[in-house]
Structures are given as structure tokens and as C-alpha cells.
Amino acid sequence: MNRFLMVLFCFVVLSAIFAYAYDNDQYSFSYADAANLAVASSIELRQAHITQSFRRGEWIWGIRAYFPRLNFSVSENDYLQISGADTFYKSFGIGADQLLFDGGKIALARKIERKELDFALSTLDKMASDIADNAISAYRNILFSREILEIRKAALLVLEEQRRILKEETSLGLALKIDLANADINLTDAKLGIHSLQLDLYEMEGQLAELLGLDNLPVLTEKIDVNRAASLPAPDDAGVLAKERNPDILNMRYSILKKNDEIKYLSKSWIPSLRLTGNLEINGQRYPLNHFKWSLGINIDFSNILFQNRFGAQAGGEYPDSKAAIVQNAFTLAPDPSVMYQKKHAKLALVMEQDRYRVILERAGRIAANAVEKCVLAERKRVLALDAASIAAERSRIEEIRLSLGFITRLQLMEALIEQTQREVAVVEAAAALLEAERELERFLDLQPGGLASFGDSLKEFQFNKRNNL
Questions:
Q1: What gap in Å lies between CA 427 and CA 422, rounded to an integer?
Q2: The pairing of beta strand 219-220 with beta strand 28-29
Q3: Most exposed among 122, 164, 291, 308, judged by the fewest C-beta atoms under 10 Å?
Q4: Strand partners, 275
Q5: Cα 206 vs. chain centroid, distance in angstroms?
Q6: In the predicted model, what is the mean pLDDT of residues 60-64?
Q7: What pLDDT is recorded for position 103?
């Protein structure tokens, strides 16, 4: 029985531990979690998506231009006269207007609108990417500040211990009071730096929590690994991928295609549009109505720079004993002469856009190569900072030996320890600078955070799609 109770007690304790660990894991997240949560919490992005959905709905309903326009009418007019006979008139009518031909102008207009929607969607993607990058940058800044804070706190403990020993030496007459005063100044500077860093860290944590839409900041699971070596692509490969995936280049391609369609639309503006109309009306003085009228017609609208001509022909009749036909023509000379410049402006805008595209495309490879070179330099700086920190640690060890031999004072040892701390901080700064340089390259190549590690796969996918014209 006692063994059973012991087993049951252990089971309850382990369950509580696992539940606690699980609950803590729920509140810890990585760079990707922070980016996704920031995007999901953005009110501006949500409103932009809603506006985009409205515009898309309007574009979908624009297909109604291909279908008949129907109208229905009901009227009942009663005239009661003091002198004379009263008159009554009741009617029910239906009318239809159907586009038969317009030279493809509506199709081109819808195509232009669709490209505008695609461009707006890419703008939303860039907006989401910027929000995610801001969250990741804030995340890394917090990690960077925390790492430095831990280094400075550890250094402060060592300095406080050295100051305690120096005070004992001063009381025994083995050290000068001026050395103790200088040690106090060093300690005060170290405490002031820690306090300032804590204030900045508190503000950064609050900003990240607000960006994520949270009251409290979760446990940040990522770390700044100062020993992580950069995985970088070849400059030429980065240039190839940049020319195909850079967001600015893709937007320029959208713009060029749209301007081409605008020129085609203006080139077809002279093509006449042909519409078929029909009307049917049932009328009479009393129910049941025993008269009806009908008509069937065609309208042609022909417009260009020199003139505008609208022609309409309609034929119909009224049951039981009448028929009618109407022909109308409206001619306007030079309705808007300034229209002749619209196509010229559109062609000029296309040429300018193509020139800009060629310049940006030419620069893309060079910018990508420079970004790779910047990452290479940041990697070298990280390696050199590690070497400098290792040398500073070795120097501090030697200075401790020299102190024990009486070659230096304890204040000089404290100064060596402070320099070692600065070297360790420089290592973290170099690692953070490398991460930022890598993310800058990833943004230029339109890669996800950490996408440089799978750069080869992205390049192979692009080359495969290009070979197969996908």
C-alpha cells in the first residue's frame, strides 16, 4: 500500500512538472513566431486586406458589363377632371440593353484592373514583410541587449571582488588611496552602463510586446550565437536570383505590362461599340390590359480624335394597328482634341518605365554582389572579434600572474578586465551585425528569415522553372 502511494505521488509530481513545462513552452517562441504574430496583430495590414477584398469584389462584379442590362417599369396614371371625362392609363414595361461588340475594350480594361489588383497584392505582401522584419529586428535587439547586459553584470561582479581586495590592501598600506578612488570610478561607470542598458532593454521589450499585440513578452527562445559561421552564396548566384525575385524588379515588370495594356486600350478607342436594345410595354385603361408596344433597335457609337458619331435605329409597333421606325444620328466635330496626347503620354511613360527597369535590372546584380561582400566583411569582423576577445582573456590571465609577482597594481588588473569585457561586447556586436547584414541580403533576394541556409535550393528551383518555362 505504501509503495502504491509513493508511485501515485511521483506520478502526480511528474505530471505537474510536465504540465508546467508545457505551459511555459506555449509562451515561448522563435523569430518566425514573432514575425507571424506581428503580421497577424497589425491593424493597418488587416484594414488593407479588407480594402483589397472590396476592390477584388468590385472587379468580379465588373463582368456584368458583358450581360444584358434589364430595367422594369410600372406606372398607373389616373386623371380625374372636374369637367370632362376622366382618363386612366396603366402600363408594365421591360427593357434590355445588350453589348454586342466593342473591339475588346472592356476585356482590356478588366485586364488593366486585374494588374492593378495584383500590384496592390504585392504591395500588401511587402507591407507584411516589413512588419515581420520590424518584429525580427526588435527581437534581435532585445537578445543583443540581454547578452551585453549579462556580460556587464558578470564583469561587475569580478570588479566588485577586485575592489574589495583593493580596499583591504589599502587599509594594510599595500595600495594607494588614489587607486581605490579610481577603482570606485570604474565601478560607478560600470553600474551606470548597466542601469542605462536596463532602461533601454525595458523600453525595447515593451515596444516588441506592443508590436505583437501582447500584454507581456513571452520567453524568447532564440539566441545570438557568436560562434555561428555565415553560410553565404556566390556573388554571381545572388545576382542571378536577385534579377528574378527582387520585389522592386517584380513591381517594375507589373508596371510595364500594365502600361502596355493601357497603350493597347487607347489604340482600340476608335473601334465602334455596337449595342442591341429592346423594349416591351403592356398598357391599357383598365385591367386586363389589352394593348402592348414593342421596339427593337441598334446603337453604334464611333468616336475618335476628329469627331464623335452616335447612330441609332429602332423599329417597333403598337398592337393592334400601328408600326413605327426611328433613325437618329448625332455628330460632334473634334469633341476633345486633347485626347490625341493620351496615347503619346502612355508611350512616353512606357519608355521611361522600360529605361528604369533596365537600370534597376543592371544594378541588381551589383547590389546583390555588394550585399554578399558586406556579409563576408561582417563574418571576418566576427572572427576577428572572437580572436581579440580570446587574446584579451589571455592577457587578463597574464596580468593576474604579473599582479601576484608584484609587477602591476590591482587597478591595472581591473583596467585589463574592463578591456576584456569590452572585447566580449564587441563579439556580440559583430555577431548581431552579421545577422543584420544577412537579413538585408535575404530581403533583397526575397527570401524568408534564415533563407540563406537554403539558398542553393532556391536557386535550383528558379533554374528548373526557367528551363521548363514555368
A1: 9
A2: parallel
A3: 164
A4: 99, 299
A5: 23
A6: 91
A7: 86
Mean pLDDT of 402-419: 90
Alpha carbon distance 274, 140 (integer Å): 63
DSSP, res 283: E
Report pLDDT for 24.
Answer: 43
Phi, psi of 308 (to 5 degrees): -130, 130
Question: What three-state secondary structure class fits 462?
Answer: helix
| 327 vs 11 pLDDT, higher one | 327
What is the residue extent of each domain of the chain?
Answer: 29-78+88-464
What the block records as the C-alpha cell of 146 is 540581454
- Residue among 48, 382, 397, 67 nearest 228 (CA): 382
Between CA 333 and CA 323 the distance in angstroms is 34
Please state, in angstroms and rounded to a whole number, the distance separating the CA atoms of residues 378 and 455.
Answer: 19
For residue 190, what are the contacts with CB-CB under 8 A and spacing of at least 6?
Answer: 152, 155, 156, 159, 418
For residue 218, say if its preceding peptide bond is cis, omega within 30 degrees of 0. no
> Residue 368's CB: how many other CB atoms inside 10 A?
24
C-alpha closest to that of 130 among 211, 214, 190: 211
Residue 292's pLDDT is what? 84
CA distances from 296 to 95, 272, 289, 292, 314 (A): 10, 20, 22, 14, 6
Residue 325: which H helix or E strand, with range? strand 322-333
Q: Band of the pLDDT at 79, cuts 50, 70, 90?
A: confident
**Greatest CA separation for the chain:** 136
Q: Name the grid cell of 369.
A: 554582389
86-145: per-residue pLDDT in tens? Answer: 677 888 999 999 999 988 889 999 999 998 998 888 889 889 989 999 999 999 999 999
Q: What is the pLDDT of residues 309-356, one digit of tens each?
A: 888 888 888 877 788 888 888 888 877 777 778 888 889 999 999 999
Mean pLDDT of 455-463: 60
Query: 368-372 contacts: CB < 8 A, separation 24 or more?
Result: 368/235, 368/238, 368/239, 368/241, 368/242, 368/441, 368/444, 368/445, 369/235, 369/236, 369/238, 369/239, 371/238, 371/437, 371/440, 371/441, 371/444, 372/232, 372/233, 372/234, 372/235, 372/238, 372/441
Span 29-78+88-464: which CATH code? 1.20.1600.10
Q: Integer distance in angstroms from the first to the last C-alpha of the chain?
A: 72
Q: What DSSP string describes 178-220?
A: HHHHHHHHHHHHHHHHHHHHHHHHHHHHHHHHHHHT-SS--EE
Strand partners, 295: 279, 316
Q: What is the dihedral of CA 395, 194, 157, 396, to 10 degrees?
A: 0
